[in-house]
Task: inverse folding
């Protein structure tokens, strides 16, 4: 079980969570490896237009040319430095905690389960987007936001009393409030449209992170839902 911890989001696409004190990580954790790969591939793609075109999520290429790898490769490239930095700060802030929590829940297989969740979240978060744009030659998407959302919401499920607030504003709300609120706002913005942010990927990535942890927890008899409910009840019973 994760201990309660506090976060200050800068932006979670559009806001990136940043903890009040960065969590400790052990050398070459899965989170650090993912971040290194993201940075290296993103920097390479930013300086190579052909590489960017080959890796970006482009639905017609999947529909007509069966380039299914784009479901994964698009999650390791970013539009610019700001996009990359925001996502990686978010992943580092939550990832280290969630990775540690997975180790506590799943034992020695925890790190591999964490990696599996992250990698599966990449295509899962994009499936609704693909369904809506399978032949749309004008549509492209990139970034790790869907997988990062999975990590964040898995963390909030494990520690529902985590404090979440706006950067530079010392006002915090608990994770069990932030989660539903974020999903509602994202759903509204997705329906509204008119921005370059793939809110659908955030929503489905977040829901996948929750679903993955609930299902995986059943195999090790970890009552994640009961744990979440108990955490919320504990807050109201104080």
Result:
């Amino acid at each position: 079980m994760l201990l309660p911890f506090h976060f200050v989001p800068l932006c979670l696409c559009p806001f990136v969570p940043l903890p009040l004190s960065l969590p400790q990580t052990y050398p070459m954790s899965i989170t650090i490896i993912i971040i290194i790969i993201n940075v290296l591939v993103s920097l390479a793609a930013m300086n190579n237009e052909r590489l960017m075109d080959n890796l970006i999520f482009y639905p017609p290429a999947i529909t007509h040319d069966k380039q299914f790898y784009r479901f994964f490769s698009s999650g390791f490239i970013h539009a610019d430095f700001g996009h990359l930095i925001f996502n990686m700060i978010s992943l580092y802030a939550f990832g280290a905690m969630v990775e540690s929590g997975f180790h506590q829940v799943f034992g020695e297989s925890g790190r591999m389960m964490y990696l599996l969740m992250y990698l599966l979240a990449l295509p899962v978060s994009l499936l609704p987007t693909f369904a809506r744009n399978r032949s749309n030659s004008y549509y492209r998407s990139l970034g790790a936001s869907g997988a990062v959302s999975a990590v964040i919401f898995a963390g909030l499920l494990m520690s529902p009393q985590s404090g979440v607030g706006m950067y530079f504003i010392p006002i915090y709300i608990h994770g069990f409030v932030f989660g539903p609120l974020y999903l509602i706002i994202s759903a509204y913005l997705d329906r509204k449209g008119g921005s370059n942010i793939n809110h659908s990927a955030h929503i489905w990535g977040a829901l996948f992170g929750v679903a993955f942890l609930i299902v995986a927890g059943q195999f090790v008899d970890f009552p994640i839902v009961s744990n979440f409910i108990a955490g919320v009840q504990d807050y109201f019973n104080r």
